[in-house]
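Handoff note, outgoing to incoming analyst
You'll be picking up this chain. Sequence as last confirmed:
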Amino acid sequence: MSTADHPTIQQQIDEVQCCFLSIRSAVEAWQRAPEQRRSVETGACRSKLAPLQAAVRTLEWVRDNAEHLRQARAGTSEQLSEAAE
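Most recent structure output, in case you need it:
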């Protein structure tokens, strides 16, 4: 698989944020609905909000530190090559 086949980190952030906003909207509508019209599934979706927020924060950190991570990875590869010699 080439790198063109993989979504960028920003595309992944956007996708996770879209999921978060969709679920949050459903939960907000669920909270406003009369109790007899609430679905158990939508109420249970509330538990997905925190992990989605955490995923966005992690992806943003990776995006913001990508260059440092690449440099660290390159340094590790060089050390492994030297050790193999």
